[in-house]
């Protein structure tokens, strides 16, 4: 992440654009847990409604998610009479998964559930070599929708392992992405997520140690773990560029700008099993404001925005834009007068190679 000042663009959705210089997104490490509890009151007509809504940009679908969803949609259209299988959820969003299920797609957690010679899509989170080998044995036709940023971490694990390094992977051991990446060299890899786990590591001083990180984590959290590793292993080998993907960082920076621009509550739209969505909520909380993660705006506990003058809204990288549009309309319909978009980065130029779905390959 760059240090120093930067230009943040703010745009009213009723017109007008302005730019302001803001200091680097150094967050205030205070806790919002001591804020007074607000009595629940779920009738919108009785709520003193926020007058201003700040909308983070970028938000919602990232390039990798859009790429994976597009690939699965094209497969469904190309094979209307054939069941398309997907290994794990294509992205971690309940709405997206439900939409595909309504089109006949079957999401599986084991290839044992997939008949031989079927078409199987590997989700955006990637899979281990063991899964690919199992697919080959079952003569499955595979489409690989792994996000290229995730593929980068797979290549790093393979490279470090081939050079005899011990790999420390910062990530969530249960997450599909972590399982796939560390599966490239399970005997050479150890997963850590806390300072205590780093302290407990016992690696020979003569052993070379390399670092790989899950792409959807919070920069602030992983930076502390990275520094702890560098302190313990001064010769720690690191990738030339951070593993945390640009879209993840942009959305986290967006949350920081929402708070620094006056939001007292931050609403994150996304699913509970979405790692990057959960991190957005945590970023807001660490800056001292209340935050909530919900699948869609109708789930919002109105007590959170009762008498709050300014509210922030963002979305995880796997949430469709129509869910955000619905949320904006919901606020407008209930009396929010000003909606202002806070732009921290322009992702319009990000382009990823399209997944080839025309010739499914045998694994």
Automatic annotation (TrEMBL):
<feature type="binding site">
    <location>
        <position position="274"/>
    </location>
    <ligand>
        <name>isopentenyl diphosphate</name>
    </ligand>
</feature>
<feature type="binding site">
    <location>
        <position position="125"/>
    </location>
    <ligand>
        <name>dimethylallyl diphosphate</name>
    </ligand>
</feature>
<feature type="binding site">
    <location>
        <position position="147"/>
    </location>
    <ligand>
        <name>[4Fe-4S] cluster</name>
    </ligand>
</feature>
<feature type="binding site">
    <location>
        <position position="275"/>
    </location>
    <ligand>
        <name>dimethylallyl diphosphate</name>
    </ligand>
</feature>
<dbReference type="GO" id="GO:0016114">
    <property type="term" value="P:terpenoid biosynthetic process"/>
</dbReference>
<feature type="binding site">
    <location>
        <position position="175"/>
    </location>
    <ligand>
        <name>dimethylallyl diphosphate</name>
    </ligand>
</feature>
<keyword id="KW-0408">Iron</keyword>
<keyword id="KW-0004">4Fe-4S</keyword>
<feature type="active site" description="Proton donor">
    <location>
        <position position="177"/>
    </location>
</feature>
<feature type="binding site">
    <location>
        <position position="274"/>
    </location>
    <ligand>
        <name>dimethylallyl diphosphate</name>
    </ligand>
</feature>
<comment type="function">
    <text>Catalyzes the conversion of 1-hydroxy-2-methyl-2-(E)-butenyl 4-diphosphate (HMBPP) into a mixture of isopentenyl diphosphate (IPP) and dimethylallyl diphosphate (DMAPP). Acts in the terminal step of the DOXP/MEP pathway for isoprenoid precursor biosynthesis.</text>
</comment>
<dbReference type="GO" id="GO:0051539">
    <property type="term" value="F:4 iron, 4 sulfur cluster binding"/>
</dbReference>
<feature type="binding site">
    <location>
        <position position="125"/>
    </location>
    <ligand>
        <name>isopentenyl diphosphate</name>
    </ligand>
</feature>
<comment type="similarity">
    <text>Belongs to the IspH family.</text>
</comment>
<comment type="pathway">
    <text>Isoprenoid biosynthesis; dimethylallyl diphosphate biosynthesis; dimethylallyl diphosphate from (2E)-4-hydroxy-3-methylbutenyl diphosphate: step 1/1.</text>
</comment>
<feature type="binding site">
    <location>
        <position position="62"/>
    </location>
    <ligand>
        <name>[4Fe-4S] cluster</name>
    </ligand>
</feature>
<feature type="binding site">
    <location>
        <position position="318"/>
    </location>
    <ligand>
        <name>dimethylallyl diphosphate</name>
    </ligand>
</feature>
<feature type="binding site">
    <location>
        <position position="276"/>
    </location>
    <ligand>
        <name>(2E)-4-hydroxy-3-methylbut-2-enyl diphosphate</name>
    </ligand>
</feature>
<dbReference type="Pfam" id="PF02401">
    <property type="entry name" value="LYTB"/>
</dbReference>
<feature type="binding site">
    <location>
        <position position="275"/>
    </location>
    <ligand>
        <name>isopentenyl diphosphate</name>
    </ligand>
</feature>
<feature type="binding site">
    <location>
        <position position="318"/>
    </location>
    <ligand>
        <name>(2E)-4-hydroxy-3-methylbut-2-enyl diphosphate</name>
    </ligand>
</feature>
<dbReference type="GO" id="GO:0051745">
    <property type="term" value="F:4-hydroxy-3-methylbut-2-enyl diphosphate reductase activity"/>
</dbReference>
<feature type="binding site">
    <location>
        <position position="274"/>
    </location>
    <ligand>
        <name>(2E)-4-hydroxy-3-methylbut-2-enyl diphosphate</name>
    </ligand>
</feature>
<dbReference type="GO" id="GO:0019288">
    <property type="term" value="P:isopentenyl diphosphate biosynthetic process, methylerythritol 4-phosphate pathway"/>
</dbReference>
<feature type="binding site">
    <location>
        <position position="318"/>
    </location>
    <ligand>
        <name>isopentenyl diphosphate</name>
    </ligand>
</feature>
<feature type="binding site">
    <location>
        <position position="215"/>
    </location>
    <ligand>
        <name>(2E)-4-hydroxy-3-methylbut-2-enyl diphosphate</name>
    </ligand>
</feature>
<feature type="binding site">
    <location>
        <position position="92"/>
    </location>
    <ligand>
        <name>(2E)-4-hydroxy-3-methylbut-2-enyl diphosphate</name>
    </ligand>
</feature>
<protein>
    <recommendedName>
        <fullName>4-hydroxy-3-methylbut-2-enyl diphosphate reductase</fullName>
        <ecNumber>1.17.7.4</ecNumber>
    </recommendedName>
</protein>
<keyword id="KW-0414">Isoprene biosynthesis</keyword>
<dbReference type="GO" id="GO:0050992">
    <property type="term" value="P:dimethylallyl diphosphate biosynthetic process"/>
</dbReference>
<keyword id="KW-0560">Oxidoreductase</keyword>
<feature type="binding site">
    <location>
        <position position="276"/>
    </location>
    <ligand>
        <name>isopentenyl diphosphate</name>
    </ligand>
</feature>
<feature type="region of interest" description="Disordered">
    <location>
        <begin position="1"/>
        <end position="44"/>
    </location>
</feature>
<feature type="binding site">
    <location>
        <position position="125"/>
    </location>
    <ligand>
        <name>(2E)-4-hydroxy-3-methylbut-2-enyl diphosphate</name>
    </ligand>
</feature>
<feature type="binding site">
    <location>
        <position position="92"/>
    </location>
    <ligand>
        <name>isopentenyl diphosphate</name>
    </ligand>
</feature>
<feature type="binding site">
    <location>
        <position position="175"/>
    </location>
    <ligand>
        <name>(2E)-4-hydroxy-3-methylbut-2-enyl diphosphate</name>
    </ligand>
</feature>
<feature type="binding site">
    <location>
        <position position="275"/>
    </location>
    <ligand>
        <name>(2E)-4-hydroxy-3-methylbut-2-enyl diphosphate</name>
    </ligand>
</feature>
<dbReference type="InterPro" id="IPR003451">
    <property type="entry name" value="LytB/IspH"/>
</dbReference>
<dbReference type="GO" id="GO:0046872">
    <property type="term" value="F:metal ion binding"/>
</dbReference>
<feature type="binding site">
    <location>
        <position position="276"/>
    </location>
    <ligand>
        <name>dimethylallyl diphosphate</name>
    </ligand>
</feature>
<feature type="compositionally biased region" description="Polar residues">
    <location>
        <begin position="1"/>
        <end position="15"/>
    </location>
</feature>
<feature type="binding site">
    <location>
        <position position="245"/>
    </location>
    <ligand>
        <name>[4Fe-4S] cluster</name>
    </ligand>
</feature>
């Amino acid at each position: 992440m760059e240090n120093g000042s930067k230009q943040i663009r703010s745009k009213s959705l009723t017109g007008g654009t302005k730019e302001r210089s803001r200091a680097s997104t150094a967050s205030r490490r205070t806790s919002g847990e001591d804020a007074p509890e607000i009595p629940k009151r779920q009738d919108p007509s009785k709520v003193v409604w926020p007058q201003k809504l700040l909308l983070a940009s970028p938000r919602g679908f990232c390039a990798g998610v859009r790429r994976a969803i597009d690939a699965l949609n094209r497969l469904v259209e190309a094979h209307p009479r054939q069941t398309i299988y997907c290994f794990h959820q294509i992205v971690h969003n309940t709405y997206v998964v439900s939409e595909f299920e309504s089109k006949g797609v079957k999401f599986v957690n084991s290839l044992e559930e997939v008949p031989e010679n079927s078409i199987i899509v590997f989700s955006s989170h990637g899979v281990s070599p063991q899964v690919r080998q199992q697919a080959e044995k079952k003569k499955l036709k595979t489409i690989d929708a792994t996000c290229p940023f995730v593929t980068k971490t797979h290549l790093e694990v393979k490279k470090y392992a081939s050079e005899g390094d011990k790999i420390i992977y910062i990530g969530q051991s249960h997450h599909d992405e972590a399982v796939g990446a560390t599966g490239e060299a399970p005997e050479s890899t150890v997963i850590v997520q806390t300072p205590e786990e780093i302290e407990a590591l016992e690696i020979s001083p003569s052993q070379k140690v390399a670092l790989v990180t899950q792409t959807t984590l919070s920069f602030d959290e992983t930076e502390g773990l990275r520094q702890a590793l560098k302190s313990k292993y001064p010769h720690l080998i690191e990738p030339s560029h951070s593993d945390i993907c640009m879209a993840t960082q942009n959305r986290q920076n967006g949350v920081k700008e929402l708070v620094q621009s006056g939001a007292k509550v931050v609403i994150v739209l996304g699913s509970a099993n979405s790692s990057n969505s959960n991190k957005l909520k945590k970023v807001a909380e660490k800056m001292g404001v209340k935050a909530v993660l919900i699948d869609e705006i109708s789930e919002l506990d109105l007590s959170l925005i009762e008498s709050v003058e300014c509210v922030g809204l963002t979305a995880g990288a796997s949430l469709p834009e129509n869910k955000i549009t619905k949320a904006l309309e919901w606020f407008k319909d209930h009396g929010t007068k000003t909606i202002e978009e806070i732009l921290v980065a322009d992702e319009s130029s990000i382009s990823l190679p399209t997944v080839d779905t025309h010739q499914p390959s045998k694994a």
